[in-house]
Amino acid sequence: MIVSTHNRFNLPGLPATLVRAVFVGLIGFVFGYSQPAYAQVCLDFAREPAFSQSFGRVGAGVSLAGRTNYPYSAEACPLDGSYTIADAVDGNCFLTLWHDIPEDHTPNDARGNMMIVNGSNRPVELYTLPPISLCSGTTYELSVWAINLLEPRICSAPLLPELAISVETANGQVLQSISISPIPQAVTPDWKRYATLFTAPETTEAIVVKLINLQSTEGCGNDMALDDIRLKQCGACSPAPMYVPGAFSPNNDGLNDQLAVILREATAYSITIFNRWGSPVFTSDALNQPWDGTHSGTPCPTGDYTWVINYQLTDATNIARKYVKTGRVLLLR
After folding, report:
1. Which CATH class is domain 42-233?
2. Which fold has domain 242-331?
3. How confident is the model at residue 310, as a pLDDT?
4. What is the pTM of this model?
5. Which whole-number Å values give the CA distances from 225 to 147, 187, 222, in the listed order?
């Protein structure tokens, strides 16, 4: 889905990021019943990006070797099918066909760089994020700030860059492909934000996310400047699957004699088991210590017992999160 918000929209007394998100969300709510929603945004304002690329500053730029399929050009006005990294776009490029862009988008960076792309006539990977381990089943947002460089007076039928993302395994298997938006022309160029949400696939492999230009037609246009590519996690990781048997039979027959909890990747763990009167009969903080159905060395009677498990997981952003689960188990003899 499409997100397009001007970076200059603001209201007194409120953070600009919050105002933009609320404004876009209201548009999606108002028009959502009559046409496709315009907003898919990550509303977890406090979370740091899992990845970001702002292309550095003059004198401290970044290399995009292995990050894009476009060849690098040292020219201020890169030719068709190439890109350059610079802090401004020269409005004299190609006999003034391009806008004059005096600065990049990144706030508060003196002479910050942007990626300037003269589009190709085939779909091309604009930027490939390094492989990253994502939380399976968790929502992520990929966003980029962009400007269409072509002056609107130039072409009768201009070609617009068409942004999309591809979510792939490290060996190139495509798991998801999502269209974001064309980048429209404007009489007065202004940085706009384009974003889409996707759900991390159920896999233990590292994931590669690619920003792609789908435009594949020869003609006039398909030129853009990009900045501030962000990958953001939109909430806590889904808890790792936990399994607690519904019954066990500690009768020494070699089958289900102990109550063992299966929980992957826990960084902290504790379990307390209560009898029907609410008294604890077993406690442990070790996953490899199952309950054998006794209390103080005495076999517990047949019946239902309640368990409470507290555990902690560390998500892909290295934030520790705590969880509490409760349930019942039937002890049989």
Report:
1. mainly beta
2. Immunoglobulin-like (2.60.40)
3. 93
4. 0.65
5. 5, 16, 10
